[in-house]
Design a protein that fits this description.
D-Maltodextrin-Binding Protein, domain 2, two-stranded antiparallel sheet
Length: 303
């Protein structure tokens, strides 16, 4: 049976005021609307709660028995709603976080959408930085926490693994490798590639994890993965980028093929100042981030 809260509310108001006019006024209703609510409640319950005459109203035997239960029901409902309001007020506030741009392409938007739905009055500021910049923003307290790659660990920061992001080959759909399930790095030696530049945080990852025998020829070097993807879409070449840099549906003319032998990935971490507490609003946002991590967690790729 569907709970008729409005009907119960109308019944209690009528029982306490003993007048359709006064009860309707207390609920900002017309008398006809109040009468309909009570009648619908009686129909749903299959009993008469109110005895009506042309001059008086009184509760039926069942109505008198039901009244204390109805009051308790409304009281418990109001108490539960008040607890929710208080929790929401306690978590109110503005949050600033720092993150690397690729996290903002695919991972973070889903988190922020869910957070905004739960806390529509909270404002979130996102600082786009390199991983070094993310860490510095946390150290300087410009951001309460950050998401980036832990290139250089510092004792003032606590690190928590968030997810792994593998590197893929991005090419146009008509490219000879576009339909492959995977491509070995050694197969790219004859390709003119768009690669991360020396100033990119991705470049040292590739240099460290690729075997010495693999020599990749760079036609272009870029600092941002999003720039590389745009160049591939324009037909300039093929690129090696992290998988998270590709926004689903944004480039239907492109294919992303996993790179193997070896599989190379980068680990994103949450960064926060050691020993510093977060604001309630930031703690709530961090909870949404962790839930998103659990829903799509990527294990470290097999070699």
């Amino acid at each position: 049976m569907k709970l008729d809260v409005l009907g119960v509310q109308a019944f209690v108001a009528l029982a306490e005021r003993e007048s359709f006019g006064k009860a309707a006024e207390s609920l900002f209703l017309s008398q006809a609307a109040l009468s309909r609510r009570i009648r619908n409640l009686e129909i749903n319950l299959g009993v008469r709660l109110v005895d009506r005459t042309t001059r008086t109203i009184s509760l039926s035997t069942v109505g008198r028995s039901f009244l204390p239960q109805a009051r308790r029901l409304l009281g418990e409902l109001e108490s539960a709603l008040q607890q929710i309001r208080e929790q929401r007020q306690a978590l109110a506030g503005n949050v600033t976080l720092a993150c690397v741009p690729t996290v903002g392409v695919r991972f973070l938007p889903r988190v922020l959408e869910a957070y905004a739905s739960a806390f529509p009055d909270n404002r979130v500021s996102v600082l786009d930085h390199s991983s070094v910049g993310v860490q510095q923003a946390v150290l300087d307290r410009a951001a309460e926490f950050g998401i980036g790659i832990a290139d250089r660990l510092v004792p003032e920061i606590e690190y928590e693994e968030l997810l792994h992001d593998r590197f893929v080959l991005v090419c146009r759909n008509e490219h000879r490798l576009a339909r492959r399930k995977a491509v070995a790095w050694s197969e790219l030696e004859s390709e003119a590639l768009i690669l991360p530049g020396a100033g990119s945080s991705n470049r040292p990852l590739l240099d460290d994890q690729l075997p010495a025998g693999i020599a990749l020829q760079a036609r272009f070097e870029v600092q941002r993965s999003t720039t590389a993807v745009g160049m591939v879409a324009a037909g300039v070449g093929v690129a090696i980028v992290p998988d998270l840099a590709l926004q689903p549906g944004a480039y239907p003319m492109l294919a992303a093929v996993p790179l193997v032998r070896p599989a190379v990935s980068r680990a994103f971490v949450l960064m926060r100042r050691r020993g510093s507490s977060l604001s309630p609003a930031a703690e709530a946002l961090l909870g949404f981030i962790r839930r998103e991590r659990r829903s799509q967690r990527r294990p470290a790729p097999a070699q």
